[in-house]
TrEMBL record:
Molecular function GO labels: alanine-glyoxylate transaminase activity; L-serine-pyruvate transaminase activity
Example GO BP: glycine biosynthetic process, by transamination of glyoxylate
Key words of the record: Aminotransferase, Pyridoxal phosphate, Transferase
Biological source species: Plastoroseomonas arctica
Residues modified to N6-(pyridoxal phosphate)lysine: 204
Protein name: Aminotransferase class V-fold PLP-dependent enzyme
Similarity remark: Belongs to the class-V pyridoxal-phosphate-dependent aminotransferase family.
Cofactor names: pyridoxal 5'-phosphate
Pfam families (UniProt xref): Aminotran_5
Residues in Aminotransferase class V domain copies: 33-328
Binding site for substrate: 353
C-alpha cells in the first residue's frame, strides 16, 4: 500500500521561480533575524540612515523618501492621498493587470481616471500618450501614472519617453511610477527621468520579505503635497516629517533594516548595481531563448510581442490554445517542486510566468527551464524540445 501523504511534495529545495516575492539570500535572512532593538537607539539610527541613503542610490535620486509598513499597494495609496484632492484627475497608461489595479484604487479614493488604452502584448503607444496630454489644454490631469515593469505581461515601459512626451506638450502634471518589479533589477533613474513619485517594495529586486514599501518623492511633489486634501493619517507625509525617521507613523520595523543593510551590501559592494542589471539582462535573454525554441510545433510563446519592451525581470508565457497554464503549473509544483507564477486577471489560465529577478544565477534559471520542459512533456503540452539548449547557447 502506498503510504505517501496525498499532498506530499518532492524532496529537495524548492525552485521558486515566481516573479514576487522572490528568493531571499541566506545572508539577508540571517541579518533580519536580529534581536529586538529600540528604533530610537543611536546605533540603529545610523543603520536606518545608511539604508535610506542606499535606497536613494538604487532609485538614483537625491530627493526624498518615505517608508511604510505595508506592501507596494500601501505605497501606491500613500502617493495618491499625499498628492491629490477629491475629484482630481489622473492619467493611467494601460500596461496590464497592475495598471488596472492602480486605476481601481484611484477610483475608490474618489479620483477621476482617464486612460491611454493599449494592447497588452505590444505596449502603450507613446504617440497616444502625447496626444492625450496635448488634448488636456486646461491641465485637468494632475498626475500621469505608469508601471515601469508590468509583472503580469512581462513588459517594460520606457519611462523616459513618457517624461519626454510630458515635456514636449508642456504638461505640468506629476509623473508617478511603479517600480515594484523593476527596482534593483532594471535601471531606474528617478531624477534623470523627472519622476515625482516612485513606488517601491521590499520583496522583489531588493531581496527582502514582503511587508515594507516606500515612495521616492521629488521636491515638486512635496510642494504639491501641501495642498492635497484626500484623507490620510498613517500615510501622511506631513506627520512623518515631524518624526526622527521622517517615515513610519508608529513603530519602525527594525528587522527589515538589518536585512536591507545586507541586501544593499550585496547589491552595491559585492556585485555592483550596474552588474546587477547586466546579470538580469543576461538571464532574461536565456529564458526568452528557451521560450522561443519551445514555440515551435505550436508550443507556448512569449506573451510580449514587442522586443523593445521585453522585461528583464519576468517573462510571461502564453499557452497553446486549449491548454491550461494552471494545470501545467500544478504539474511543475506537485511533481517537481518548481513554483511558477500564474496569469493575473484576464490572463488567468492562459499564461504562466517565470520570474528572473533578485537572488538568482545560471544554475537556478537552467534548472527551472529544464523542469518546465519536463512538466510540459508530462502534461502533454505541445512544444519543440531543446529549450534548455537554446538557453545555454544564449548564456554561452
Amino acid at each position: 500500500m502506498d503510504a505517501t501523504p496525498k499532498n506530499a511534495r518532492p524532496r529537495g529545495r524548492q525552485f521558486f521561480a515566481n516573479p514576487g516575492p522572490t528568493n531571499i539570500p541566506d545572508s539577508v535572512l540571517l541579518a533580519g533575524a536580529h534581536q529586538t532593538v529600540d528604533f530610537n537607539d543611536p546605533n540603529f539610527i545610523a543603520i536606518y540612515d545608511a539604508c535610506v541613503e542606499g535606497l536613494k542610490r538604487v532609485l538614483k535620486t537625491k530627493q526624498n523618501i518615505f517608508l511604510y509598513t505595508g506592501s507596494g499597494h500601501a505605497a501606491w495609496e500613500a502617493s495618491f492621498v499625499n498628492l491629490l484632492s477629491p475629484g482630481d484627475t489622473v492619467l493611467i497608461l494601460e500596461t496590464g493587470y497592475f495598471s488596472l489595479s492602480w486605476a481601481k484604487m484611484a477610483e475608490d479614493l474618489g479620483i477621476e481616471v482617464r486612460s491611454v488604452a493599449a494592447d497588452w502584448r505590444r505596449g502603450v503607444d507613446i504617440a497616444a500618450v502625447r496626444a492625450a496630454l496635448a488634448e488636456d489644454s486646461a491641465h485637468v490631469i494632475k498626475a500621469v501614472c505608469v508601471v515601469h515593469n508590468e509583472t503580469a505581461t512581462g513588459m517594460a515601459l520606457p519611462v523616459a519617453e513618457v517624461r519626454a512626451a510630458m515635456d514636449a506638450t508642456g504638461h505640468p502634471a506629476l509623473l508617478l511610477a511603479d517600480t515594484i518589479s523593476s527596482l534593483g533589477s532594471l535601471d531606474f533613474r528617478m531624477d534623470e527621468w523627472g519622476v515625482d513619485a516612485a513606488v517601491g517594495g521590499s520583496q522583489k529586486g531588493l531581496m527582502l520579505p514582503t511587508g515594507m514599501s516606500f515612495t521616492g518623492v521629488s521636491d515638486k511633489a512635496l510642494e504639491a503635497h501641501k495642498t492635497s486634501r484626500l484623507p490620510k493619517h498613517y500615510f501622511n507625509w506631513t506627520n512623518m516629517l515631524t518624526r526622527r525617521h521622517k517615515s513610519f507613523v508608529g513603530t519602525v520595523p527594525v528587522s527589515f533594516f538589518y536585512g536591507l543593510q545586507e541586501a544593499l551590501r550585496l547589491i552595491e559592494q559585492e556585485e555592483g548595481l550596474e552588474n546587477v542589471f547586466t546579470r538580469h539582462s543576461r538571464l532574461a535573454r536565456a529564458v526568452r531563448a528557451a521560450v522561443q525554441h519551445w514555440s515551435g510545433n505550436n508550443g507556448p510563446q512569449l506573451f510580449c510581442l514587442n522586443p523593445a519592451r521585453y522585461s528583464d525581470s519576468v517573462t510571461a508565457i502564453m499557452m497553446p490554445e486549449g491548454f491550461d497554464a494552471d494545470a501545467l503549473r500544478a504539474v511543475a509544483l506537485q511533481k517537481f517542486n518548481v513554483s511558477l507564477g500564474g496569469g493575473l486577471g484576464p490572463l488567468g489560465g492562459k499564461v504562466f510566468r517565470i520570474g528572473h529577478l533578485g537572488d538568482l544565477n545560471e544554475p537556478m534559471i537552467l534548472g527551472t527551464l529544464a523542469t518546465v520542459e519536463l512538466a510540459m512533456q508530462v502534461a502533454g503540452v505541445p512544444h519543440t524540445p531543446g529549450g534548455v539548449g537554446a538557453a545555454i547557447a544564449a548564456l554561452a
